[in-house]
Amino acid sequence: MKQTEPDFWVLEYVTITKDPRTDLVVAIGGTEKAADILQRTGGFLSAPGPRGDYHRLPHGLPVEQQRLKATAASHALLAAGHSVHLDPTLNMLVAPDGEREAALRYLAGLAERAAAATPGSEVAEVLTEVAAPVHGLLPLAREVVVHAWITASGFSGAVPAGEPDPIARLGRITDSLSVAARDILHARNHAARPAQQPGTASPPPGRAQPAASRRR
Q1: Burial tier of 62 (Cβ tally within 10 Å: 0-12, 13-18, 19+)
Q2: How far apart are the C-alpha atoms of 1 and 132, rounded to whole Å?
Q3: Residues 184/141, Cβ–Cβ less than 8 Å
Q4: Which of 77, 59, 67, 53 is nearest to 23 (CA)?
C-alpha cells in the first residue's frame, strides 16, 4: 500500500519576527482569522508584499511596545489554535536575565572551543566569531562603547585640571577595539592557511647552492 504525504495546513502557521533591515515587526502567514486576531489584539496593520499581504506593527513604536504587542498577538493566536513562531527577542515572557545568561553560555562555549581546537580551520572559526566585521563579538562590543561614549559626552561635567578626561579616553578606546579586531582577523587568516609539511620548504631566493649540488 502506497503511503501518501500528509496534508499540512501550512497557511495556519504564523511567524512573528523583527526585520533586521527596517526594524519593523512583521507577521507572515496565517489565514483571514489569524489576520483578524493580529489586528485586534496586536494592532498590526495589513500591507501588500511581494508574495502577498502580510502584517506589520506601525512605524516608530518603542521596542517595549513592539515586544508587548507581538507577545499579546502570539498568545491570542495560540489560544485560537494557530501554530506560531515568535522571535525570542520579542517575547515579553522571557526571564529578564535570559538573554544575558545565553550570552554568557555562548562565551563560555567559545572559550571551550578555542581550548580544544586543533591548529588550522577550527582556530580560524573561533577567531571569526570574535572579530567578524559585522556580527563579531569585538565589533559589537565596540558599537556598545561608541554609543555609551556619545551619550556620556552629552552630559559629562568638567574634568579637574591636570586629570585626564575619562570620556575622551573612552572615545580613543573605540579606535583600539577596531585595531584589535583587524589584528585578530589577520591572525584568523594566518591560522586558516594549510600548515606547511616539514622538509618541503623551498630555499630562500638568491641563496646559491653548493658546487657539489650543482654537479649532481
Answers
A1: exposed
A2: 53
A3: no
A4: 59
Q: What is the residue whose three cell numbers read 654537479?
A: 215
d(CA 43, CA 60): 13
Q: Mean of the per-residue pLDDT values for the chain?
A: 83
Query: Are 185 and 127 spatial neighbours (Cβ–Cβ below 8 Å)?
Result: yes
Name the residue among 28, 29, 31, 30 with its Cα closest to residue 19.
28
Residue 86: closest CA among 102, 64, 69, 105: 69
pLDDT tens column, 81-128: 889 999 988 988 876 666 777 788 889 999 999 999 887 788 999 999
Question: Residue 136 corresponds to which amino acid?
Answer: G
Cell 517575547 found at: 91
Q: Convert 168-197 to b/e letters by CB count within 10 Å (16 or more is b).
A: eebeeebeebeeebeebbeebeebeeeeee
